[in-house]
Design goal:
Largest sheet of chain B: none
Helix content of chain A: 40-55%
Number of helices of chain B: 14
Shape of chain A: rod-shaped
Distance between the termini of chain B: 31 Å
Strand order of the largest sheet of chain A: 8-1-9
Helix content of chain B: over 70%
Number of helices of chain A: 8
Radius of gyration of chain A: 46 Å
Structural class of chain B: mainly alpha
Order of helices and strands of chain A: HEHEEHEEHEEHHEHEH
Largest interface: A-B, 73 and 63 residues
Chains: A mainly alpha, B mainly alpha, C mainly alpha
Radius of gyration of chain B: 21 Å
Oligomer: heterotrimer
Strand content of chain A: 5-15%
Strand content of chain B: under 5%
């Protein structure tokens, strides 16, 4: 191959290698630990489904008014999900018939290694130092991959806007917590079903509460390890988290870990493929060349063979011709001699 | 049905009329989409953020445009010179395919004018979608450059530039294979991030490998399909070189497809075994999985193999669209049917009329562009002025 | 390819069929229908799965309806001549085997299957031949081996409560055997059971020896101890039948499954008990047990010696004086506390250090474990779950928390110290029973029997809670009314009285985590008025009020209900009824 070609290929490989990706989580901070990040502990056994958290969130984030007011508790009879106008909603569940219902507040769980941040191809989501996963609408393209990626199905989209559709989700009231205030929902809760503080302390409080009330709570803090751990923790009364609509089968692998393998393949392919393909090309070219050379050789051999045969044939024919002419000459000579021998008997009359 | 001119020179052939209706409807929906928002024309929701514009236009579009890299790799890297005539049509199909993918994305994405942000403004390098976007962007450029000589030959007067491009063929081909490997597999890798949402029979850590392998025989099958159809409708544009290699190509691609499909099947079965997912086969979704795999991979694979062995081109030409439908079914399964499988049926997604119209619109635009180009530019034939140049 | 087109068409046809199959199966995967609802509730369901002992079942278990068979056969006198004996064989002593058509000798799987098939189906065939409506014959395996039977079980276990025991005991008053009619004791020397005629001979509940399954004790004669099921059915049902056979219309107990185990029938039994047993009847199951006792560890056989060889004085908690009679009145059977035997807890099983016989449960754990119903603390915790107690006790620590409460049970009285010390040096058996009883009675007399608190005038009538008032008016709490109604709820409880040992004790239910005085501190002294961003297990003031008040209402089950017996009383506000406790401020 020509030198220019080779250099060109190297350049191509180099370009792809230079877009090398780090197969870790959202690279805005080393998420491992973030020991001082804040979180919220939700105690489902304390929630009474009064929806004051929803109302406060609506006010703090200046969201539009919903169809039914927040003191209308009949909305709890249907199971809802977050939508473009509601960062958080409360659902009612009846795990055991005849027993009082259990309520659960749904909002972004502010994962330690957020799937949305990992999935976003313009880094519109960032895991901040406070623990909140914040969204930057100024770069968002609206591809909605974050909505596919979120295992809790939280982000929503403003499908009805044309020029400025945004992804909508709970922000953990990042501006407020940076000022030392509480998130809107936490402040509004009359039962302190929501407790705000450092994640480590919340875990301690959660486990202490579970231990102090033997038999009351499910012995598990949801969010301690789910999807790599979340900053929003939940404890629930028995029978189970599944009974209040939480997915118990999510596992502890974070979303970035799920895709890091595939991402790691990129530089590998970019590095190996040029060599491999060039090699294949070289092999096929060499095969061609060898085939060509063999063909040439075969042709030459064939020519040599036929020439030799022709020469042989020619020599044989020549020999034959010579012999024939010799014979012919001898025969003529013989005839002439015989004719001459006959003549003298005719007399010397001439 | 042929070019715009029929015997009596009328523009209103049945095909054109239907295409025209689709274009008109598409324009209407386009206006609606860009004046009233996505919610007005789609059935997308917070539970189902991706619909057929991703499932079909993006996933199927990219998979079926894989003929470009497979054919050019076969011809230039593996040295199958007799397929040379098929390279340009395959490249054109691929180029139009990718161009239409990008075109369709402009409908689906919330703020299409920002589609270049991830490449030029702020990169999300942890995202598989970033990798898809970057590779598609670069590959579209590569395909464009590979297609450009045909355009230049038609236009004339660009000999110098054409010469440069022709010299780059090898490099562009290799680069194209690299890029195709990366983005075909990454489209599968997109779904790795959501194991809780994809049915266990379809979710596997080997999704990228599955998508890559299936893209290979998708591309090969598309080339066979496209060749069959083109022969029917554009025969008059084809020269001897093309025709000479045409049948051979179809058999060779049939053989290759059969082999790759067998490997793909082995991977699917191994995947089931490794995670001990056999019991899912006895559910409703299991029956559907068997329908997809047995009905649309095993059977066409067999059809291809028999067709190649018996040199029965009829079988090959049945297996090809069958495989294509199988690929579409697989992409639909991963993105729409087996996705969100646990949601109650009231929350499941079905495309709206507007979405279907736009998808048809995009495909029609592609077909019309294809028709325009092949009836004018040297795709199926070698331009007489450039007979001797190596390409 | 030959017949290529035809072959392809066939292939496509097969594919289309598969496709339709797949499409029809797809909704099944999407829909998760749960069609299970049966209203056929029966108490006589016997699940015949004896073949399980021989390997996995090849057919589903047979749902056998015992009462249905006995009732149906009862109508066919000629087919039911031997009554129970029609299906159940008896041993040489006349005791019935409860297995179907077999004794309890080991039997192979094949033979057992044949026993069932031959006899069940055989009888059905005989009935059919006799022109009767009957069960399935062998053509329909699924007729018997039905994996999805319509019937479901509402079988409930039967407890012989005090009234039932009284009624049974009454029938044996004039008999020779007396208690021995039901209770027997195992005589090791004789190698068999002997009737326990006198109350003192009765070893206690059947469950002490007869467990869930038949136990085999090697070396014992006989080796097998029947399971509780076999024992009770074998004894009770046969006795009821024998009684019925003594004459026409002799009142006797049930002999059908539902008669003892059906919920409706059990209610009927309870009603009959209420009617037949006089209101003032002494229901106490007498066995010569003391009215009072001292609960203490068994005396060590060999006193511990110090280095010099002198016996070490055993230091321990003061013994617990125990009102056995009152506790008996609170429970239906002895088994509630004496869960394994009527002998001393601490002699062999729950020793101070723990022993193998007691599952290594130490004496302290046996007495104080909160989760175990048979421990003292455990039973008391169960009592605290009653609505009238739960309001305060749900959020309080369960069981023994504060060492200050040890004295509630381990009663110490200076005047009785010497006598107690002397008692502790003697073994805890019959010889000291009378002394112990007297001492216990005296110690208990020093304790309260009813809950009381400060004089009514000292209890504030209303308390205005307004330190946080912002969107709502201050809340006016009807303090005295609440305290008095709480006291009314526990006025008959000796348990409450014993543990609410001081006047300030009941105040601690709401005025918690603070010194017990007549003037407890304000809530706001400890609970911060404003919630801070630093997480703390102690809630801020607003949540403290709401959790205390609402938590109590919910635990007592009065949330949203009218509880005040005064006419025109308003309901206790529901949790989400903010204005029920505090009016909204007018803007």
């Amino acid at each position: 191959m020509k030198r220019r070609h080779f250099l060109g290929l190297l350049g191509a490989a180099g370009v792809t290698l230079s877009t090398g990706v780090s197969a870790k989580a959202a690279s805005s901070a080393d998420v491992k630990g973030l020991p001082n990040s804040f979180g919220v502990l939700f105690d489902a056994s304390r929630c009474i489904g009064c929806r004051k958290c929803e109302a406060a969130c609506n006010v703090v984030n200046e969201l539009p008014q919903p169809a039914k007011p927040f003191d209308d508790l009949t909305v709890l009879d249907t199971v809802r999900r977050t939508d473009a106008k509601s960062y958080t909603i409360v659902n009612k569940y009846t795990p055991e018939a005849g027993k009082p219902p259990v309520f659960r507040k749904i909002q972004c769980n502010h994962c330690m290694e957020p799937a949305c941040a990992s999935a976003c191809f313009v880094s519109a989501f960032k895991k901040s130092e406070t623990g909140a996963v914040v969204y930057d609408a100024s770069v968002c393209v609206g591809c909605r991959y974050c909505m596919v990626a979120c295992p809790f199905g939280i982000p929503t989209y403003e499908y009805n806007k044309v020029l400025t559709p945004r992804v909508m989700k709970c922000t953990m009231c990042q501006p407020r917590i940076l000022e030392g205030k509480l998130p809107g929902c936490v402040e509004a809760c009359p039962k302190e079903a929501l407790v705000f503080g450092k994640r480590r302390e919340l875990l301690n409080i959660a486990w202490d509460r579970i231990g102090a009330n033997a038999g009351r709570y499910v012995e598990h803090v949801y969010g301690e390890r789910e999807m790599g751990g979340t900053n929003w923790l939940t404890i629930a009364p028995k029978p189970s988290f599944a009974a209040i609509g939480m997915d118990e089968n999510l596992g502890t692998t974070s979303a970035p870990e799920l895709t890091s393998g595939a991402l790691a393949a990129v530089p590998a392919v970019a590095g190996i493929w040029p060599v491999l393909l060039t090699g294949l090309y070289a092999i096929s070219k060499r095969k061609e060349k060898i085939a060509e050379a063999e063909k040439q050789e075969a042709v030459e051999q064939a020519i040599a063979k036929t020439s030799a045969e022709a020469a042989e044939k020619l020599a044989a024919e020549l020999a034959k011709a010579e012999a024939a002419s010799k014979r012919h000459t001898e025969a003529e000579v013989k005839k002439a001699l015989e004719a001459a021998a006959k003549a003298p008997e005719g007399g010397e009359d001439a | 049905m042929s070019t715009q001119e029929t015997k009596n020179g009328s523009l209103f052939t049945p095909f054109n009329i239907i295409a025209g209706i689709i274009l008109a409807a598409g324009l209407v929906v386009t206006i609606m989409r860009f004046t009233m928002g996505l919610g007005s024309v789609t059935n997308l929701s917070d539970n189902n953020p991706w619909g057929i514009w991703i499932g079909f236009d993006l996933l199927c579009g990219v998979a079926l445009a894989a003929g470009g890299y497979t054919t050019s790799a076969a011809c230039y890297i593996f040295g199958f010179k007799r397929f040379h005539g098929a390279v340009r049509p395959a490249i054109l199909t691929a180029f139009l395919g990718y161009a239409l993918v990008v075109f369709a994305l402009h409908f689906d994405v919330g703020r299409p004018w920002r589609l270049v942000y991830p490449i030029f403004y702020q990169q999300g390098t942890t995202s598989i979608l970033f990798e898809v976007g970057l590779c598609v962007f670069i590959y579209l450029t590569v395909l464009f450059l590979e297609y450009l000589p045909a355009f230049m030959e038609w236009k004339g007067g660009f000999d110098k530039y054409r010469g440069i491009l022709v010299k780059l063929t090898m490099g562009l081909t290799i680069f194209g294979v690299i890029l195709s490997t990366l983005h075909q597999s990454s489209l599968g890798a997109l779904y790795l991030i959501a194991p809780s949402k994809l049915h266990p029979l379809w979710y596997t850590p080997y999704l990228p490998v599955m998508f890559f392998m299936s893209s290979m025989f998708a591309g090969l099958s598309m080339v066979i399909c496209e060749g069959t159809l083109s022969h029917k409708y554009f025969h008059h544009k084809m020269d001897d070189e093309y025709n000479a290699g045409y049948l051979d190509l179809q058999f060779a691609f049939a053989k290759a497809s059969a082999w790759i499909m067998a490997g793909y099947l082995a991977m699917k079965v191994l995947g089931l075994g490794m995670d001990n997912r056999w019991h899912y086969l006895f559910t409703g979704f299991g029956a559907w999985w068997l329908f997809e795999v047995v009905g649309f991979v095993v059977l066409p694979c067999y059809c291809y193999a028999v067709g190649f062995r018996d040199r029965n081109v009829g079988l090959v030409r049945i297996a090809a669209p069958w495989t294509v439908i199988g690929i579409m079914l697989n992409r639909f399964d991963v993105s729409l049917i087996a996705f969100n499988w646990q949601l109650p049926s009231a929350d499941r997604y079905f495309p709206s009329v507007g979405e279907i119209i736009i998808s048809l619109f995009v495909v029609t635009v592609g077909v019309l562009a294809f028709r325009f180009i092949v009836t004018r530019m040297p795709i199926f034939f070698v331009h007489p002025a450039y007979k001797d140049s190596s390409h | 390819m030959k017949n290529g087109k035809r072959r392809i068409k066939a292939l496509l046809a097969v594919l289309a069929i598969c496709g339709m199959g797949g499409l029809t199966a797809l909704p099944d995967g999407l829909v998760q229908a749960d069609q299970q609802g049966s209203d056929k509730l029966r108490a006589d369901i016997i699940s015949i799965d004896a073949m399980q002992a021989y390997g996995t079942l090849s057919q589903p278990k047979v749902v056998f309806l015992h009462d249905k068979h006995t009732t149906a056969l009862g109508k066919q006198k000629d087919l039911y001549k031997k009554e129970c004996g029609t299906c159940h064989q008896s041993n040489k002593d006349g005791a019935m085997y409860l297995g179907f058509m077999r004794d309890d000798a080991p039997i192979s799987g094949d033979k057992l299957r044949d026993v069932f098939h031959a006899n069940c189906i055989g009888c059905h065939r005989d009935m059919t031949a006799a022109g009767q409506k009957t069960g399935p014959t062998d053509v329909q395996c699924k007729g018997c081996h039905n994996a999805t039977p319509e019937e479901s079980s509402n079988w409930q276990p039967l407890v012989v409560d005090k009234r039932l025991h009284y009624r049974h005991a009454a029938t044996q008053e004039k008999a020779d055997n007396k208690c021995g009619a039901c209770h027997h004791v195992y005589d090791e020397a004789a190698g068999k059971t002997a009737a326990a005629a006198k109350p003192e001979q009765v070893p206690g509940s059947c469950t002490y020896c007869h467990g869930e399954t038949t136990t085999v004790v090697s070396g014992r004669k006989p080796e097998k101890i029947r399971s509780l099921r076999l024992a009770t059915h074998g004894e009770c049902v046969t006795c009821h039948k024998a009684t019925a056979a003594t004459g026409k219309d002799v009142p006797t107990g049930p002999i059908t499954c539902a008669g003892c185990h059906g919920p409706l029938d059990q209610k009927a039994i309870a009603d009959t008990s209420m009617k037949k047993v006089a209101k003032d009847a002494d229901l106490r199951i007498k066995r010569g047990q003391p009215d009072f006792a001292m609960v203490r560890p068994a005396l060590a056989e060999k006193p511990a010696l110090d280095a010099a060889g002198k016996p070490i004085k055993p230091y321990g908690m003061p013994p617990v004086p125990f009102d056995h009679k009152t506790h008996e009145a609170q429970n239906e059977t002895c088994v509630s506390c004496h869960h394994a035997a009527l002998t001393s807890c601490s002699e062999k099983c729950h020793t101070v250090a723990g022993a193998k016989e007691g599952g290594f449960v130490t004496l302290e754990t046996a007495m104080h474990k909160v989760n175990a119903g048979q421990s003292c603390a455990g039973c008391h915790v169960t009592a605290q779950k009653r609505p009238e107690c739960a309001g305060c006790h749900t959020s309080m620590k369960k069981g023994v928390g504060d060492v200050a409460t040890c004295g509630s049970c381990h009663v110490k009285s200076d005047s009785l110290d010497a006598a107690t010390a002397e008692l502790m040096t003697k073994p805890a058996d019959k010889s000291t029973a009378t002394i112990a009883a007297g001492l216990a009675e005296k110690l208990l007399a020093t304790k309260r029997t009813t809950t009381s608190t400060f004089p009514t005038d000292d209890i504030p009538d209303t308390v205005t809670i307004g330190s946080l008032s912002k969107d709502y008016e201050p809340s006016v709490l009807p303090h005295r009314k609440i305290v008095l109604s709480m006291l009314a709820g526990m006025k008959d409880s000796k348990l409450a009285g014993a543990f609410h040992a001081t006047d300030a004790a009941v105040c601690q239910g709401c005025h918690h985590n603070s010194p017990a005085t007549k003037t407890p501190p304000r809530c706001g002294n400890c609970h911060p008025a404003v919630e801070s961003p630093v997480a703390s297990p102690r809630p801020a003031l607003k949540a403290a009020y709401h959790n205390q008040c609402m938590g109590c209402h919910v635990a007592m089950g009065i949330d949203g209900k009218v509880v005040d017996k005064v006419s025109g009383a308003k309901p206790v506000p529901a949790a989400t009824d903010c204005t029920g406790c505090h009016k909204e401020k007018k803007k």
